[in-house]
């Protein structure tokens, strides 16, 4: 017998919660010296339309970051072995990107699942 629609929805929510927990563990491992202000799950995991091969997209906001995207990726350990892919910005960079309509920046603000949060209130809306 096929699962009921309610069972399918419950299983999907459990899968999403498991993926969010992976992101939460990633956020907890971030080095203290980066002065992390927030980590939000975005993309298909946040929306719930992920599939088995989907990575777990996150936005990492931190105050003490190296220059350059590659150095920032390395500093946060992205991509991680458990499938977390990070976009890494300072809070100031994130706010500027929101003003320009950057998809990842606006998605973090509007529909992101915050797994770690400590930015200034004015930055978080």
Throw out a few tags for this protein.
125 residues; alpha+beta; Beta Polymerase, domain 2; 6 helices; 20% strand; elongated
Overview in brief:
This is Nucleotidyltransferase domain-containing protein. The chain has 125 residues and is of the alpha+beta class. 47% of the residues lie in helices and 20% in strands.
- Count of beta strands: 4
Using the coordinates shown, work out and report the CATH topology: Beta Polymerase, domain 2
What's the alpha carbon Rg, rounded to whole Å? 15 Å
Number of helices: 6
Helix-strand category = alpha+beta
**What shape does the CA trace take?**
elongated
Strand content: 15-25%
Highest CATH level, the class: Alpha Beta
| N→C terminal distance | 47 Å
User: What can be said about the biggest beta sheet?
Assistant: 4 strands, mixed
Q: What would you say this structure looks like, in words?
A:
With 125 residues, this protein is of the alpha+beta class. It has one domain (5-124): Beta Polymerase, domain 2 (2-Layer Sandwich), CATH 3.30.460. The chain has helices at 5-28, 43-47, 69-76, 91-99, 103-111, 121-124; strands at residues 36-42, 56-62, 84-89, 113-117. It has a four-stranded mixed beta sheet with strand order 3-2-1-4, sandwiched between helices. Strand 2, helix 3 (69-76) and strand 3 form a beta-alpha-beta unit. It is elongated, with a radius of gyration of 15 Å. The chain starts with a helix and ends with a helix. The mean pLDDT is 91.
């Amino acid at each position: 017998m096929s699962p009921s629609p309610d069972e399918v929805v419950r299983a999907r929510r459990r899968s999403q919660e498991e993926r969010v927990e992976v992101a939460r563990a990633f956020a907890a491992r971030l080095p203290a010296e980066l002065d992390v202000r927030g980590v939000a799950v975005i993309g298909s995991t946040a929306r719930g339309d992920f599939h088995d091969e989907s990575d777990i997209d996150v936005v990492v906001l931190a105050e003490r970051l190296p220059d350059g995207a590659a150095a920032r990726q390395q500093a946060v350990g992205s991509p991680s072995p458990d499938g977390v892919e990070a976009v890494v910005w300072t809070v100031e960079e994130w706010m500027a990107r929101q003003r320009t309509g950057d998809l990842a920046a606006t998605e973090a603000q509007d529909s992101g699942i915050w797994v770690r949060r400590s930015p200034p209130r004015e930055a978080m809306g």
